[in-house]
Amino acid sequence: MPAPSARPRYARLLVPLLAAAALHAGPAHPAAALHADPAHPAAADEPGWTAEPVAGAAATRPGGARPSFYLAGAAGTVLEDRLAVDNTTDRAHTLTLRGADAHNTAEGALAVRPAGDGAGAGSWISFGSGATVTVPPRTRAVVPFTLTVPPAAPPGDHPAAVVATGGGREAAVRVHLRVSGPALAALTVEDVSVHGRGSAAEVAYTLVNRGNVALAPELAIRAQGRLGEVPGRGARALPLELLPGQRVELTEPWPGAPVLDRVDLTLTVTAPGGARATATASAWFVPWRIAGWTGAGLLLLGATTGVALLLVRRRARTDPSADAPPEPGPAPVPAPQNELTGVPR
Fold this sequence. Notes:
By secondary structure, the protein is mostly beta strands. It contains 2 helices and 19 strands. It has 2 domains: 29-179, Immunoglobulin-like (Sandwich), CATH 2.60.40.10; 187-285, Sandwich (Immunoglobulin-like). 14% of the residues lie in helices and 40% in strands.
């Protein structure tokens, strides 16, 4: 009899391996990530090419490297700068360049809008004929671009980015644009609430940038309980840059939350430029596990007492001797009476 074929067994092993490889590869077109001041040039997810501002005299790093583009001008002016694209491979790369609006995600991270989405400073950037560039192997291409500030552009910060796309990957370089005019630093704190208990407690809140400049906020938490002041959180810088007009939802760990108390919280947020905002909230802290066992014990005691009373009443109703009158006993014998006859004895 011929030996059974091993092909079905190998096929069964091949299917899960191919599925795992597909999951590991991820989506074909991930969104570009944007960092406020990247430590390295923006790069594709796989080695091959990088994009960064052309080195200038006003660079902030040794060697003339600039972390981002910094542009400033009045409304109606045209600003210019240059992007350097380095091809580090032995084959040519064709890249598409565009401007994009920058924004905060709901959690506070920085991101860029997709192509065609947004009408802010990203739409003011133009590469002209250099919007598509082919970079030969082991070559650096320098591509100029312009940023035309509309005449009606309001003063303040207008966050944007330059995005390079090639080989199904994207890389973004931050553009800091300041339009001349009055600068207003303002923010509010909203929707304060407390979640969790004990060392796992955290304070949730929303920050809104009401001004026209980007903010680097600091947060402090003060807590007052019914038994005195409770440890809060000292002022510390939040790990985010809050862009103008943006709203972010954040949480702050609060390991000093009490076990049993009613606490009034005061959140104070400040930022350079004179921005300051406060918000308050109240929260009860109850050891629910202990309270639960105590409540269960009281319920059990009450139930036991009720059952005992019910049994006593039921027994009183069913026992005839409890309500029957007592049986009459033998008639008492009258005591002897002395007869008074007047005769002496």
